[in-house]
Design a protein that fits this description.
alpha/beta; Aldehyde Dehydrogenase, Chain A, domain 2; 2 domains; 19 strands; globular
């Protein structure tokens, strides 16, 4: 047991490595040791919400300064915590080591000042996150001051991409929350590495002292019954599917704790008929589509699974769709290893869906034979039945006559739509948004999504705080119990 790596428990700047119990990383490739959280129930919750007051002493600019300094310390080439997290994650993460290395190398980018400003300033008045702000007199003569108060929160983060840790840390700090981060079994390492770097940098800083990182196996009834209590938490933010949080819903009924779910979602691509007028345009569309499919080996919700091509559905149209499917496949194979690689293995469930298609005239298959990824080209205007399970850069190209042909497969679980060419958006935008698509971007830019915008149809920073109102009626005469104007 002593040969197994230790994943510390971190509680508001303090690191614990005792009371260890073995846990299995997802996939069964690694067993790690971590403190039994049941032994720390008297310390993990923040019992006094007024203990958040020390976060009010730091300004918005000071928060930016803190994270700029942190970002400079997170270079995997020099940070031993990040190096160890990467090495261990190679055994548990869904991405291959080369893709994972690219993800770790990009983590410092999330702490650049301009990136953080773009994340916060378009979404919320930063002054309202620091104190009450006068919104001016109302018609009644009352003056109203508003503030978004930080809360005691739990974040159940996903493990499909380590960059999600950085986004969670930033959101927590800018909203002045006290946050417990529950790490996932396929990445219990990244959050610990970053927060340990914060402790090395500024152990007594209010931001450092309001972050905790813990791993426990979901469904631990004794622990979860205690932690999911309105005296301990105000909000729970959960990434992933319903199965990841269904065991806690029985503890938070009644609305005393607000549960905010992110996902699961899937994304699509749309390619307009214009690309068939120019071979150079078609090749550009293929390269862009391949990137949106292959980035991070198709492990995130913004990766495209289904690409709808307005090629027509007669025999000539299907051949046009096959042509671009072949070009996308070739572009997938040409992606750099830091972006996308051959998969370690294709899941058995996906293989069971794929094998019959090689003998089915309803599909033409490019690749999909040796874990290299591939494209399933539908020969009819219908996507495959297992679109939600497509991963490891295996995608489906579907010919359509018009946008109306694909709207039946679009709903509120469709996170994003990458569109090419840009002018094609004018034709498709309103219908896609009405049917449930949450975000639209230019094809090929899946990895450069705007952070200062909605996620899952909500403004996350505004959702993370509790909005409070102070009414000043001092200028009004007191009329006893007469009704208000």
């Amino acid at each position: 047991m002593s040969d197994n790596p230790v994943v510390p428990l971190i509680i508001r700047g303090q690191i614990f490595t005792d009371n260890l119990v073995p846990m299995g990383g997802r996939g069964g490739d690694l067993t790690f040791l971590t403190p039994d959280v049941n032994q720390y129930l008297d310390r993990l919750p923040l019992y006094d919400p007024c203990a958040l007051d020390n976060l009010d002493s730091i300004s918005y600019e000071e928060i930016l300064d803190y994270f700029v300094s942190l970002g400079q310390r997170l270079d995997i080439k020099t940070n031993r915590h990040m190096q160890q997290a990467y090495e261990l994650s190679c055994h548990t993460a869904p991405a291959t080591p080369a893709v994972l290395a690219g993800s770790y190398a990009s983590i410092p980018d999330y702490f650049q000042r301009d990136y953080m400003r773009d994340m916060v300033e378009p979404c919320v008045d930063v002054a309202q996150l620091a104190g009450l702000v006068d919104s001016g007199p109302r018609a009644s003569g009352r003056r109203v001051r508003l503030r978004g108060y930080g809360v005691r929160a739990l974040h159940i983060i996903g493990g499909n991409s380590p960059e999600g840790v950085g986004i969670t840390l930033l959101r927590s700090a800018f909203t002045r929350c006290d946050s417990i981060i529950k790490t996932p079994s396929n990445d219990p390492f990244t959050a610990v590495a970053i927060v340990r770097s914060m402790i090395d940098m500024a152990p007594d800083h209010p931001i450092t002292r309001h972050l905790s990182v813990a791993y426990w196996k979901g469904g631990d009834a004794n622990f979860e019954r205690a932690i999911y209590h309105p005296d301990h938490l105000r909000k729970v933010f959960a990434w992933g599917g319903h199965s990841s949080v269904e065991h806690i819903e029985k503890y938070i009924k009644g609305g005393d704790i607000e549960l905010v779910l992110f996902g699961p979602k899937r994304s699509i691509s749309l390619i307009g008929p214009q690309v068939f007028e120019d071979d150079a345009l078609l090749q550009e569309a293929a390269r862009r589509a391949a990137f949106d499919i292959g980035w991070q080996n198709q492990t995130t919700c913004v990766n495209s699974r289904i690409t709808y091509v307005q090629s027509g559905t007669d025999s000539a149209g299907v051949e046009r769709a096959n042509r671009i499917a072949a070009a996308i496949y070739e572009a997938l194979l040409a992606l750099p290893e830091s972006v996308s690689t051959r998969a370690r293995h294709t899941s058995r469930d996906l293989q069971s869906w794929l094998q019959p298609l090689f003998l089915d005239d309803a599909y033409r298959i490019f690749g999909c034979r040796d874990n290299e990824g591939g494209i399933i080209a539908s020969q009819y205007p219908e996507p495959v039945d297992f679109g939600d399970q497509l991963t490891d850069r295996i995608a489906n190209v579907v010919p359509i006559d018009s946008i109306a042909d694909m709207l039946q497969w679009v709903n509120h679980k469709t996170k994003a739509a990458g569109v090419f060419p840009e002018a094609y958006k004018e034709e498709v935008r309103n219908r896609l948004f009405r049917y449930g698509v949450q975000q639209m971007f230019s094809l090929g830019f899946v990895n450069n999504g705007t952070v200062g915008g909605p996620q899952d149809n909500m403004e996350v920073l505004r959702r993370m705080v509790d909005w409070k109102m102070d009414e000043d009626c001092s200028s009004l005469p007191f009329n006893g119990f007469s009704p208000p104007r």
